[in-house]
Amino acid sequence: MPTLNWSSKSITGFEHADLTLESVMYPQGSGYPDAVPGNSLFLGDNLRVMASLLNEYENQVDLIYADPPFFTNKRYPARIGRGEDSRRPQEWQKTEGYADNWENPDAYLDFLYPRLLLMHRLLAPRGTLYLHLDWHADAYARLLLDEIFGRDHFLNEIIWTYHGPSPIKTAFNRKHDVILVYTKGVTYTFNVDAIREPYHPNTIKTFASSSKAGFGKVPNLERGKVPEDWWYFPVVARLHSERTGYPTQKPEALLERVLLASSNIGDLVADFFCGSGTFPLTAARYNRRFLSGDVSWRAIHTTRKRLAAALSSPMSFFYENALLIPVCEKDLGIKISNRVISIKNPAPLDYWEVDPNWDGKIFRSVSQASRPNRSAEIPLEIKMPVTLTNVCVRAVTVDGSQIQSNVKSVPNPPDGF
Ligand SMILES: C[S@@+](CC[C@H](N)C(=O)[O-])C[C@H]1O[C@@H](n2cnc3c(N)ncnc32)[C@H](O)[C@@H]1O
């Protein structure tokens, strides 16, 4: 069988991440304080994070969606402004997003290959991997996946097409991504009825008007059809309600199809390159448990902020020591009165949350407030669902700094608590 070789290719032992539990989010108080979190988010290099998860999760993950850097040799800034004119990119307020820069193809393959090996080990016997790339590296990845999963375990090469402006004038516009789908075993989850779509109106008309249409095969027109292996979904730049500002964010509809096809309610799914968090968000909406992570603090912050509004059960957040943005003490002007906590806005805030009984170690967030995607206004008051004893408020500013303010012991809990 043909295999891909490069001079530094190797399968050596994997270094484990030194992970610390930083916080637990109880979305809008749900499950506080006793529920055991079924979801986890990791800030760290996913090579080390995945290696450290092998102990607990080898052969346990039902579905992995992986959307790594594509080998484009570009940097991708994140947009943090609100209400800006989309036609004037020179005026957008930006900050660091992530880098996709490599010295040469070997360096990229040294990055991708061991991560694919670990994903294969984490997958359950009936599990599926969706690896999202484009023309830059899809051919290399196809050979790597044939080697790791076995050629016979190839399921699909999905073409995701979209449209939009392009600077290219010397070739056809490159307007599709490639999603390579491999299964770990011979039997695997594929929920065909969960992803059917309506037949094209022309097909329905043809069958209504001619008994000979379909050469003897009559499709079940009401049930709908299984989508082809090419999918059209608009890019997030065209979906104003979804845009977080995080670069290369994927549309929710695309990941919904992946999730519904290849997992069931209660399954454990994973995305270790989660970026803005589209996949864990989709998992939360459809009642799957997830492991998710990214090496960028902005990605983790964006993901947590999105999940606060979508999750219905708790999530743990772990970090690798060197990567966490330090939390600075700052007076947030906390006021507590009659079931409501309010703060002042010392710097433009993107997100804030409250631990009603801060133990000085693990932040247990029971109430969260976020700056909406399309407005600069963040609510500065939160209604608390639980008794307050030792309040700590944490906030993330628009530029990504973390600040924290405490009210040590609330002596006379306000009426009604
Ligand atoms: C293409 S983006 C993912 C976008 C995401 N699917 C979304 O919908 O927003 C790739 C992500 O991989 C992350 N990444 C790159 N190298 C990583 C590593 N070694 N460990 C974890 N994440 C990494 C980047 O920070 C970036 O957020």
Features:
about 425 residues, alpha/beta, Rossmann fold, Immunoglobulin-like, eleven-stranded mixed sheet, five-stranded mixed sheet, about 20% helix, globular, binds S-adenosylmethionine
Set out the fold topology.
Blueprint: E1 19-25, E2 39-43, H1 46-57, E3 61-66, E4 74-79, E5 94-100, H2 105-122, E6 123-133, H3 138-149, E7 154-161, E8 176-183, H4 201-209, E9 230-232, H5 252-262, E10 268-271, H6 278-285, E11 289-294, H7 297-310, E12 315-320, E13 327-329, E14 335-337, E15 340-342, E16 349-355, E17 363-365, E18 367-370, E19 381-383, E20 391-397, E21 402-407
Parallel strand pairs: 1-17, 2-11, 2-12, 3-6, 3-10, 7-9, 10-11, 13-21
Antiparallel strand pairs: 1-12, 4-5, 6-8, 7-8, 14-15, 15-19, 16-18, 16-20, 20-21
Helix pairs in contact: 1-2, 2-3, 5-6, 6-7
The structure holds S-adenosylmethionine (SAM).
Residues 45-46, 67-69, 98, 246, 248-250, 272-276, 278, 294-296, 299 line the site of S-adenosylmethionine.
Structure description:
- The chain is an alpha/beta fold.
- The protein folds into two domains: 19-189 and 228-323, Vaccinia Virus protein VP39 (Rossmann fold), CATH 3.40.50.150; 327-407, Immunoglobulin-like (Sandwich).
- Helices cover 20% and strands 28% of the residues.
- α5 packs across α6 and α6 (278-285) runs parallel beside α7 (297-310).
- Residues 45-46, 67-69, 98, 246, 248-250, 272-276, 278, 294-296, 299 line the site of S-adenosylmethionine.
